[in-house]
Amino acid sequence: MVIKVFLASSSGSTAIKKKQQDVLGFLEALKVDYAPLDIACNEDNRMWMRENVPVEKKPTNGIPLPPQIFNEESYCGDYETFFDAKEDNAVFAFLGLPPPPGSKEAKEAEKAFILENGPVENGTVEIETVESETVENGTDDAEDEENLEAEEVEEEILDDDSLKAPVKQEEAQEEVEDEEAKGEDDQPVSEQEEEDE
Known about the structure:
Layout: E1 3-7, H1 14-29, E2 34-38, H2 43-52, E3 68-71, E4 74-78, H3 79-87, H4 91-95, H5 104-117, E5 120-121, E6 124-125, H6 141-186, H7 191-196
């Protein structure tokens, strides 16, 4: 897949030049393959870009300004949508490309996948299915799963109670230390101790 970036090589607007440089510089930094297509020198590029930007994305005058970004024939967006994707660490999704392994975007996509589908083991997705099959002891898989869930809930409750005990012990220890500190301050001081101070 080739990313097409429609640019104007001879634009009189410094704002457009800066936006174009920002897009190209970021794509180069990410090592994304792209093809810069000049609309100032090539009428075919200009017409193709204008025809393929969706109507809802065109400005009120109907003429989209560069830079405009496409993935092959699919419209990705203009500078503003590119900038938003960049701020959200979602440039690869914006471009319709898979994020490189180990990138921030790939890690976020993996977390979202795990939240939706459960954990992944050995690079493959395990999908749990529950079928009602009678096993030798007369229970079915659905009942076994319910029993396991009930045991897990009981374990969680036990874990919560076990966490409370150390907290109570720590609070009691702090109270004892506070009382000892108060006791030292409240004891009468002899005249000799006062003179030493």
